[in-house]
Structures are given as structure tokens and as C-alpha cells.
Amino acid sequence: MKRLYTSFGRVAVVMLVPLALVLGFTEPDFPDRLVERLRAFNVAYPKEKVYLQTDRPYYTVGETIWLKGYLFDGPEHLADSVSKVLYVDLVQLESRNVVVHRILQAANGYAVGDIALGDSLAAGNYMLRAYTGWMRNFSEDYYFTKPLTLLRTDAEPAQVTTNRPSGPQPDVQFFPEGGQLVNGLEGRVAFKVVSPAGKGLDASGFVLSSAGDTVTGFSTKHLGMGYFSFQPVAGYTYTAFLKLADETTHKYPLPEARPEGYTLLVDNITNRDNVRAYVKNNKPASVQGRFTMMVQSRGRVVQVVQGEVGKKAIVMQIPRQLLPEGISQITLFDETNQPVCERLFFAEKKERLTVQLKPSKPAFRPREKIQVDISVTDAAGKPVKANLSLAATDAGQVLEKEPYKADLVSYLLLDSDLKGTIEQPGYYFDANNKERTTDLDVLMMTQGWRRFVWKDVLQDTHPAPKYPIEEGLSITGRVIRPNQKAPGVVNLTFFVAQPDSTRDVFMGESDENGRFSALGLQFGDSTKVMIQGVIGKNNRNLEIKLDDWFSPTLQLTQIPYNPLVFQRDELADYLKRTKEYLEIEQQIRKNREIMLKEVTVRKKREAPSDSRKIYGQASNTLKVDQTMVAGGMNVLDLLRGRIPGVSVTGSAMNPTVQIRGSANFSGVVEPLFTLDGTPVDKQSIVSIPIFDVDYIDVLKGANAAIFGSRAGGGVIAIYTKRGSPNYDFSNEKSPGTLVVTLPGFRAAREFYAPRYDENKPEQVRPDYRPTLHWAPMIQTDDDGKAQVSFFASDARSSVRVMAEGATTAGQPGVGRAVFDVK
After folding, report:
1. Which phi and psi (to 5°) does residue 154 adopt?
2. Considering its fold, how many domains does the chain have in total?
């Protein structure tokens, strides 16, 4: 490592340089282990991020939430094409219950869906949360969450209280920079003052020592946050006295200072090229060795450097060009290799997309066609391909109540790496806010970050995660004996009846403990599944239990801010229009329910068709009943003496089957065997339980020609009861069988909006849609261009359009536009 020490008072300067050079100079053991353990930890537990865009922030019961999910990998923010399943929950905050659970199919990092709000839902405050199956291995703090408000047209708008503390005492927290105060060393203390509702409060105050001396004064800078500097002295304690805007005063003890240790101060403001980290310690002269400082961003190592404990004050410079955009973390390890100080800082690179939304006209007439041209460019002004979602709303009904609300940019670069809720996250990305850089640095000193703890990282081995990365839906569970003991290996057959009437059959086996898993499945919502277990040849004395994977739980809810506080008449127009629209929709549905006169239809009964067949008429068919099953060893035993021209000889485990005339110079030519329409080998047929068979078709000569040369010896086609498209799994009562209805992928509905360039009867009704258009999958071309069009409603109001999206390389962007309908 190249070191540069210069005279700067009593402060030594260390320039951080690329990692390979750093590790070439520093002590090899701990830095090498630190980097390797962090790399291994991130390989074992790769991170994912999820974001949801919705069409608006509040809804009326009876309406639909239109949404799109974006999936990103954690370190690089690339579009996540690994996880193919996205879970979305609608949570009622007052009861903390999941009232709606959706499973959406993701492809190439995107998932489109909707939630119809049923009439049974109560008005109040709700939260949308979204996560992948893999994210369930980690804290729920890093699930995506978004506050929503539900209203009812039959009740006054009311705010349902969340479980926040109440009372006059504000919540005040003090955060020594780096994590600790040390006697004799000057340090900074950040603080945050919030109301019982979680909003930042303006305040001022002073710090008093236990000797009665005023040490320093302070005041909040932005949204209840600020900081002050002071040097604690051994033998004294310190108390902060806080004065609020209502003139009330409150006092709080400051964190106790340590007698000896390290302090870490970060300057992310004054130098354009470097971030400066000031490290001080008051260790006794007898303590020798080196401390280590690591800089990492989202699990990627940026820099590692060591310093001598004997140097009591050192400043280390981190070149900004080496930092990715977003949050980075500095961790200081002492001479015993224990983490003692941490500090977050934000590196702004302005690598975001510019999304321009340009309407074809400055103003439109009611019901006129609106065209919006979309242009997306990168930070260098070059056009790029991006995938976007766009919502257009009536600004007169959908009010912008929350200033600087979260969007894809603020979430991806800020919220997703921090614990707790950030008030007005968009503020820190608005270039018009001159103080946003310093305010963002104070936020970094007060907001919690715990993607991992170093104790877990530094372990030599990492336990296997409980939940896999899902490339499809999963069915997992366990087979046990009635006495609750492990059965050993169990043969399993899965029958899946899709809502669209298609059937899937697949087989597998459990492990020695009876555990099984079927992964990567594709099926729709409310799919009926039957699982059948067999030990040995025909032992079904078993019980099958599924894991409780599909029932969403809520262990710890991150309560978001409750920003939507409405005045009495603000929503009067919206509620009136929505009530009229829902009443019209209800009447239309009633009008469609026309009672038909009784009609008698006579038709000659036809033989029921079986979709499993690709042929027409069989040469012979054997319908299997209970009288045939007794005494039979396998399915082929059923054919002995029952089908003319079919000979079954040999042992029960290795029979030989011949259809008359099927032979050549080499001997017997056995028939082709099929199971529920799929060609299988003879051994698979022999292993089928007899009582599962519905009927057997035998195809001879020309009847078997459709199967080609494979059917030179004819065809024996076995059809099972459970494979039949008409079979009802719920009637299955046999031992070793479980029949359940499982939630699957929710099919995405298409957003409906009227087209006023076409004459349709329903267009005579009034049109006051709050959401005029929702387009979840907009793809710009090579020139970064796209176009959307929709029709204005009857409202003479403003239309607010918002588009969010990202490139596959993870560059996010947000565009907004407002225009009038006159």
C-alpha cells in the first residue's frame, strides 16, 4: 500500500488506494480474512431489493390497486432475473393483519399485478409490502413497504391510529458519530427529535455538565435532525435540555462516554475529490499494534487500510471516484480486530436516468385523446433502453398530500439500505434544495443500517438459508407415519389440476426423514393439488403435511409515516364521483343477469372424449373395476385372459407382453407403453398401483399407426383415475394421500379505460375516473423513445403523469408532467 504522511498539525494523512495495493502492504492476516469473509458472506447470502409502483396513494373500497414490482440484485442494482416469484401483502395497520396476499410471476426483474379491494375491508390506514421468497431469510426491515389509505363512500374519511406512542413527550435519540463518545476526545453527536406520530419536530437546546456548566448549544437543522460537537471529560455526565416550538422543555441524558477508545469523524462535504475520515484514539502508550478501517458499499469492498495505534490522530482520504452511487459504510476495527466504530455516508454520482414526459399539447378538452411522448437518457445525455411504468391521474381527485414522497430513485439508493422510515426521502434528490447534501449527511448519522453484523460475517462457516431462491412456486413438506416417526424414503406422486383444466403429473421421492420439496412449479391461483405417498410396493399407511409456506405472517411491522391527513371537504368530490361510478357498475352487473326461459335440448349421447388421447378408436378397451383388482400383482396382470390376442407371460416383476403377430427374427416385439398419454418404459407401468387404473386401451395394427415406428408391436395405453380431466381430487380419501387447494400465480388483469374514438353504449355514462391510465410495461427503443396514449375524462382539471423505471444495468429514473384538461 502506498502511504502518504504529511504535516497537518498533529494529524497524519493516509490516502486510501485500490484494494490490491492496500493488501500488499498491510498486515496480511486480518485484512485478508476480513475481505474474504465479507466476500464469502455475500456469496452465501446474496441480497435482493424490491420496489412497487402503484397508480395512486389512496383508494375507495370497491376500486383496484394497480401495481408493478421491480426486482433488483442488492450489490449492483441489476435487474434481478433469478427470483421468479414476488409476494405482495396488503396489511391493515391497526390490527396488523394481512388482509390480501398475492403471488405474482416475475420475469426479467418485473412483475405486474393488481389488488381488487373487496367490500368487506374497513376504512383506515394500510401498508403494501413486497418481498421474494429469498428475502424471507433476512429481517423484515428490508421488505419493501408503502403506506396506503382506504376510504369508504358510506363513511366520513377517518384516520385509524397506528400503534405509535402517544403523549406530549417527544421521542429524542442521540447518536455519537462513529457509535461512541470517548473522554478527552472531541466528537460529534447527532440527534433526532420526532413527534408521537413519527414526524420530525423543530427544537433547540443546550448541553449541561453534571457540574452545572453549559457545554454547548444546538438546534435542529432539517426534519428534527441536527448535530453538535463537544469533548466529554472524565468524571462528568451530561444532560441535554430540549425546547420545542410550543415552549415546553424536556431533558434527556447523553450517552455515557468511554474512558478510552477510538472516535471516527467523517467529512463528506468540504472536499470535492475525497471523503475524509478522521480517526482518533486515547489508548495508553503500552498499547501497540494496528487498527483497520474498511470501506464497503452494499457488500462490495471499496477500500481497506491500516493505521498505527501510536498515531493518535490520523485522517484517511477516500477518493470519490472509487465509490458507487449510494450509501457506503466505514467500519473501524481496533488493534484486537474488534469492530468499534461505524459511520455511513452517501456518495452522489448523479448516474440516474433523465425521464422526460411531453404531452402532444399543452391542454386538452374533456374526452380528447391524450398522447404523451417519453424520452429516456443517461447521465451523459445518451438515449438508453429502459423499462417503465406510468400512471396518469386526475389531480383534482388524487391529491398530492405527501411532500417529497418516496420513488424508485430514492428507494433504491437510500431507503432500501436503511432501517426505519425516512421522512420525505425525495427531498435529498431534488437539486433545487441547496442544503440537501448537508441534510443528507446528518441523516446518515441518525438512521440505522444493519444489513449484517460483523459477528456473523467473520464466521468461518455460514448456515444454509431456510428459503431457496425461487425460480417458480414451491411445494414442500414432510411424510410421517401415524406414530409420528420418520418413514424413510417415500415415493411421491403429485397431481396438479390447473384452473384452466390442464393437468400435470410428476413423481419424486422424499429423503430418509420424509422431507420433500417440489420446486420451480408453474400453476395459477386456487390450484387443486393431490400428493400421494407410497413406501415399498403398496404401503400407504402414511400422513402428508405441507409446510406453512403459503400463509403470510407478520412478525414485525415497520410502521410507516401516516402522511395523509385530510381536511373535511378535500375528498368530497372524489368520494362523490367514486360512489356514482360504483353504483353505475353495480347496476350494469345486475342488468346482465337475465333469466332465460326453460329450454329442453335433446341430443344423442356421445362417448366422452379424453384429452389424454391422440388417437381415435382403440382396438380393445378394458374398464377396470374392483372385482379385477383382487389378486392382481401389477397392472399387466389385468390383461391376462381378458383381451383377445394379448399375451402376458413371465413373472409379476418382469412380465413379457406380446400382441398377436408382433414378432420378428429376433423374437417378441413388445408393445409401446403409455401412461395417461405419455410414453413410459415397462417398469414404470409395473410399478403403478392397480387400484389407480381407470381403463386400459389396446391398439393393434393400423390403430397404432399414429405412434409411428415405436408402435411396431402395438400399444398398451394405461389411463389412471387421477390423470383424468374429469377426476375430482377432493373425493380421494385413501391413506397416504393429501388433497389441498394452493394459491398460485395471480393472473394480471388489463387496465380498462374507455376509448372515445369508438361508439359504444356505455360511453353515455359520466366519466370521472381518478386513474385515467395505467401502463405497467413500457419499453423504450434504441433511441430511448416510447409513446403512450389515453383519453381524458369529463373532469375539467389537471392531469398528473408519473413514470418510473430502470435499465437492466440498474440505473433508475423518474419523470413527471402536469397538464390541463379545459
Report:
1. -100, 15
2. 4
User: Are the C-beta atoms of residues 265 and 278 closer than 8 Å to each other?
Assistant: yes
pLDDT tens sequence across 57-98? 999 999 999 999 999 999 999 998 889 999 999 999 888 889
Q: What's the grid cell of residue 135?
A: 428475502
Same domain for 178 and 300: yes
362: Cα within 13 Å, side-chain hemisphere: 0
The total of other beta-carbon atoms located within 10 Å of residue 793's CB is 24
C-alpha grid cell for residue 268? 463528506
Longest dimension (CA), the chain: 113
Compute CA distances 567 → 96, 197, 572, 634, 640, whole Å. Answer: 26, 18, 10, 76, 84
In a domain, 632, yes or no: yes
- d(CA 103, CA 85) in angstroms, rounded, equals 7
Residue 629 has what DSSP assignment? H
Q: 548, 572, 599 — which closes off a domain?
A: 548
Which pLDDT tens digit goes with each residue over 2-17?
333 222 233 444 444 4
Q: How far is CA 706 from CA 617, 672, 820, in A?
A: 11, 12, 66
The C-alpha cell that represents 553 in the structure block? 405472517
Task: Kindly report the three-state secondary structure assignment for every residue of 253-308.
Answer: ECCCCECCCEEEEEECCCCCCEEEEEEEECCCCCCCCEEEEEEEECCEEEEEEEEE
Q: What is the pLDDT of residues 20-58, one digit of tens each?
A: 333 333 445 899 999 999 999 999 999 999 999 999 999
> Within the chain, how many helices (H) and strands (E) appear?
8, 47
Asked if residue 273 and residue 176 are part of one domain, the reply reads yes
Residue 231 and residue 186 in contact, taking contact as beta carbons nearer than 8 Å: yes
Residues 146 and 292 in one domain: no
Q: Write down the pLDDT at residue 164.
A: 42
Sign of CA dihedral 403, 406, 408, 410: positive
Measured distance CA(744)–CA(549) in Å, rounded: 12
> Which domain does 658 fall in, by range?
620-724
- Cα–Cα distance for residue pair 795/117, rounded to 1 Å: 24
Last residue in a domain, options 151, 183, 216: 151
CA distance 264 to 332: 8
Helix (H) or strand (E) holding 147: strand 144-151
Instruction: Evaluate whether residue 796 is within a structural domain.
Output: no
Backbone dihedral region for residue 399 (phi beyond 0: left; psi -120 to 50: alpha; all else: beta): beta
**What gap in Å lies between CA 805 and CA 22, rounded to an integer?**
38
Among 379, 740, 398, residue whose Cα is nearest residue 544: 740
**Is 510 contained in some domain?**
yes
In sign, the C-alpha dihedral spanning 54, 55, 58, 64 is negative
All three cell numbers of 475: 411445494
